[in-house]
């Protein structure tokens, strides 16, 4: 089976691991705490003092490049938060730490409830159709066949790409591939949805459909974190956080 951006993850990808094994599904670390269901009114995601640096070069000139310097981020139930920043500010690094795909050098992450992850680069199998992706991810999430099919139909309708249900991933346009990428993150109806540049490649109609989905999730008490290079519709967010000099600064 040929894959696109699979990066050695098992069938269903890291996102399926995150959603299927309880609240996070990522490898456990002493600095991470996970709880099955969020108590009413309690933060669904809490990151404190997150630090991360990357090693560059070869010995003896090998050195570290710091990216995150004590980032704090708390997410309340039903909250929509945007994370912005310049290229290289550490947005995607922070997202990977929040979902457990990358270990922080220091700090703690506490996750409550089930999480869904939409990476910036779609994680798909080129030879599988959209329907087959949903079936595969549904099994990885632990959904019943009936629940998976019901959620799949709702996602097709909400994002408007049901006519591509039988189309292989390697034959999808960039915009439709982005819809599939988002749909896989939505499939298990997570309590927290973490999206890295989710609407890149969307046309304006799909962009509006995306925000309808976000509004519905907010009304149902689900939380959403969206990473974007720039924010044009600030009123759609409850708040926006900027990564600046390795720290999270309210904007």
How far is the N terminus from the C terminus? 45 Å
Q: Give the strand order of the largest sheet, numbering strands 1, 2, ... along the chain.
A: 7-9-10-5-11-12
What's the overall average pLDDT, rounded?
A: 85
Alpha-carbon Rg, integer: 18 Å
**Poorly predicted ranges:** 1-13, 20-30
**What's the helix-strand series?**
EHEEEEHEEEHHHEHEEE
> What would you call the shape?
globular
Helical element count? Answer: 6
Number of strands: 12
Helix content: 25-40%
Report the sheet with the most strands, covering strand number, pairing sense and barrel closure. Answer: 6 strands, mixed
What does this structure look like?
The protein contains six helices and twelve strands. The protein has helices at residues 13-20, 91-99, 130-141, 145-159, 174-186, 204-219, and strands at 3-4, 32-35, 45-56, 63-75, 80-84, 106-112, 115-118, 124-125, 192-196, 223-227, 239-244, 247-250. The strands form three sheets. A six-stranded mixed β-sheet has the order 7-9-10-5-11-12, with helices on both faces. The chain has a four-stranded mixed β-sheet with strand order 2-6-3-4, covered by helices on one side. A two-stranded antiparallel sheet has the order 1-8. 29% of the residues lie in helices and 27% in strands. It is globular. It is an alpha/beta fold and 251 residues long. Helix 1 packs parallel to helix 3 (130-141). Strand 9 (192-196), helix 6 (204-219) and strand 10 (223-227) form a beta-alpha-beta unit.
């Amino acid at each position: 089976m040929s894959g696109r951006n699979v990066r050695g993850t098992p069938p269903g990808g890291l996102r399926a691991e995150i959603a299927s094994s309880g609240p996070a599904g990522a490898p456990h670390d002493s600095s991470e705490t996970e709880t099955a269901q969020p108590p009413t009114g309690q933060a669904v995601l809490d990151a404190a003092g997150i630090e991360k640096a990357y090693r560059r070069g070869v010995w003896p000139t090998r050195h570290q490049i710091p990216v995150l310097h004590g980032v704090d981020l708390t997410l309340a139930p039903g909250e929509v938060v945007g994370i912005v920043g310049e290229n290289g500010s550490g947005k995607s690094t922070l997202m990977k730490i929040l979902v457990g795909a990358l270990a922080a050098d220091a700090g703690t992450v506490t996750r409550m409830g089930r999480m869904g992850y939409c990476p910036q680069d779609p994680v798909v199998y080129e030879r599988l159709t959209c329907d087959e992706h949903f079936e595969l991810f549904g099994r990885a999430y632990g959904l019943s066949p009936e629940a998976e099919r019901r959620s799949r139909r709702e996602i097709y309708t909400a994002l408007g790409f049901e006519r591509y249900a039988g189309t292989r991933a390697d034959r999808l346009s960039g915009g439709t591939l982005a819809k599939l990428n988002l749909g896989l993150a939505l499939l298990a109806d997570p309590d927290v949805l973490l999206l890295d540049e989710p609407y890149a490649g969307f046309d304006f109609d799909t962009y509006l459909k995306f925000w309808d989905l976000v509004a519905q999730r907010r009304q149902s008490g689900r939380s959403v974190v969206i990473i974007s290079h720039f924010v044009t519709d600030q009123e759609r967010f409850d708040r926006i956080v900027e990564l600046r000099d390795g720290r999270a600064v309210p904007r």
